[in-house]
Amino acid sequence: MSPIVKLLAQRIALSLLLLLLISIVIFAGTIVLPGDVAQSILGQSATPEALANLRAELGVNDPPVQRYFAWLFGAMQGDLGTALTSGQDIAQALSSRFWNTLFLAFWAAVVAVPLAIFLGLLAVRFKDRWPDKMISAVTLASISIPEFLIGYVLMYFIAVKLRWFPSVAMVNDNMGLFEKLNAIALPIAVLTLVVLAHMMRMTRAAILNVMQSAYIETAELKGLNAFQVIYRHAFPNAIAPIVNVVMLNLAYLVVGVVVIEVVFVYPGMGQYLVDHVSKRDVPVVQACGLIFAAVYIGLNMIADIVAILSNPRLRHPK
Amino acid sequence: MSDTLLKVRDLKIGATIYPPGERPRDIEIVHGVSFDLAPGKVLGLIGESGAGKSTIGLASMAYGRGGVKITGGEVWVNGRDILKGSHKDIRKLRGAEVTYVSQSAAASFNPAKKIMDQVVEAAVEQKKFSRKEAEARARVLFAKLGLPDPDNIGERYPHQVSGGQLQRCMTALALCPEPDLVVFDEPTTALDVTTQIDVLMAIKEAIRDTGVAALYITHDLAVVAQVSDDIMVLRMGNTVEYGHVDQIINNPQEEYTKALVSVRSIEHEEKAPTEEPVLSVRNITARYKGTQFDVLHNVNVDLYPGQTLAVVGESGSGKSTLARVITGLLPPREGEIEFAGRKLSPDLKGRSREDLRELQMIYQMADVAMNPRQTVGTIIGRPLEFYFGMRGAEKKKRIIELLDEIELGEKFIDRYPAELSGGQKQRVCIARSLAAKPKMIICDEVTSALDPLVADGILKLLLDLQKIEDVAYLFITHDLATVRAISDNIAVMYQGKVQRYGGKSKVLSPPFDDYTDLLLSSVPEMKLGWLEEVIAHRKMESAGN
Fold first, then answer.
1. pTM of the predicted model as reported, rounded to 2 decimal places
2. How far does B89 lie from chain A, in Å, by closest CA?
3. How many inter-chain contacts (A to B, CB under 8 Å) are there?
4. Is residue A141 helix, strand or coil?
5. Contact B110/A313, CB-based, under 8 Å?
6. pLDDT tens digit string along B152-205?
7. Cα B522 → chain centroid
8. Partners of B69 in the beta sheet?
9. Count of beta carbons in the 10 Å neighbourhood of residue B445
10. Taking the CA atoms of chain A, what radius of gyration do you get in angstroms?
11. What residues have CB less than 8 Å from B163, skipping those under 6 apart?
12. How far is B268 from chain A (nearest CA, A)?
């Protein structure tokens, strides 16, 4: 087996193992949490008999290990259980919301990633001059302001005053792509501002690090202009760290959009999760936790795979 | 002057330095240098580190490395003063009229791109050739430079070829756009001596066949004598002497040039082995953890009290691994080590404090072998405390004694490593190892990073100290001149085996085995025409076989 295949196999196996461990932690965590679901479902009408019946029905009395495996095998077959509070099938309820969240995250990434990398390259080209300082200042300011505040400010000016885009990002299946994009323009803008600084600064740092190398001098002495040097010679060697930070931010776009979804009343997973946490609906919380963990681990795994593939020493062994 | 390709007049170059705790200030590092170079000729720029030779070479491309700025003078290339040109003019010059070959091809090739893409890039970008023409030209150059499989080597990545091959690829890169001038900046310094001779010959022939002019920068006068028409000797940014190669080598006028020509003047009489060796290496076979092959095979050497055993070999020969085995950093697979009449534990953990004290080590990189935040006094005082429990006035007295022995003196006691020159740092490292009163010191390439005259001083000091302290040296080096200067016994290592071993006179006298012959005959001699002689001799021999 070639070393690169072995490395990739190891990395993928490690991700699966990690996901398994996380599933244990999620399951154990929701068991340890105080509170009684049966109590909160029944509320006023909780007689001791009703409580005991409901607990038996919910399977709360079974040993935890048995419940864990039942839950895990269910999840692996796409059965995430039923929500305690509404009796809905979780997988069904989640799927449209999950796709909505991915839809928002995808379009935010389409805007933010190229923009961040371009700004990073620009900052390197004009290092320590005014474009670099301005890019740094603006992106740092945007990351420092809480996202809900940016959200409300944009909403006030762009949606209420200028009426360019709607303030509430309601989407449904009957809308066309353009309509949908129009609806989520503001959340995309906010998310872009939030993740831009991190990716741009990392791009700048990674490329500047490479710019110290002797082969950059070689490129300069070939008479290439500054952008050719950065783009042809520095960027290919800075891919691994850049992809790493991009993936971390993509994960944030999927997992961390809770606030934005609430601000813009967007029908994504975040809002669904928040609703059910407050109702102590353990199966829903577990399902969301598992999906978020899978997204996080998956994206970081992709980052590592890209890093391995971008290393010419591994791609082309001696 | 139409017959002058490169004309440099009163070139002044400055840099901004940032001394710790002070305000940055501008200093001048090249103080008005002038020279001419005709088409097709080679000018050698020679000097120690800090002489400004690389800086001058890069100035001929209007390039300043780091914070270096050209502050005055004129640099005329093909009848234009390039220092007056715009950014665009300068970009058109670089990679088209003037190209550059750096010291470390391994670092100067982009690891993420194929060799061919990098070799033809300048020629294509500067519109000298189409991509197809440039590739054809590159393949011709690969063949001319003696690279294996010239038709396909361009498809490889830099890490897939050896250091010597990559240095030839770098030369092809520089010649591909058909420049008028190539700046060679120490192109063979990082190579092994047996590789250097081939690369040197390839470069020389390429210069001759393409009719390109060259600036050849090096610290090694013997090397530059083989390729240059003229030589300029530089020191601290000033021209010391400038003349025809024959005059510089055979009839130097200035004291400094004379010192460079006659460097390695040390005469050291070989001592006969005494009865009991202080160190006996017996049947050592070793490999690194997680690898499948032995890097040392059945090594046997002895070192006698108060004498020097030189272990000489090229990179990968196992000489540094031998040092690791002796110090206990790498326990051997087989064999044992006897030291001062007792068997040494193979593992560092199993050794007593006395074992550690009596076996000291000095490293190649003196500046990273010292804590930069400790003063010289603290650095030298540490072994005195650790091994002898010295304190206060007693310790200080001994530190001053040691500072006198290394010819630095008491005034250095409160200085920090950053305030010392390279040679002074290495002296402090020597004092630190002597402070332990060892029976034996392992010297691992201790003069390799130093300029020749400074290295000479260190070697003389080591020999003097050997007489005073009666200490034995295991001297690891790749430099045969150093070996000649200081050794009593020599072990020539090749591919993990001791190829040849014995007294200095015996090892360095014929009849030789093939490898030792190759090694010895590859060391550049301070003689015009040496390179051609050796190559012709080798061709004759291989024809005879």
1. 0.79
2. 10
3. 77
4. helix
5. no
6. 999 999 988 888 888 889 999 999 999 999 999 988 887 888 888 888 888 888
7. 15
8. B14
9. 19
10. 24
11. B105, B106, B190, B191, B195
12. 41
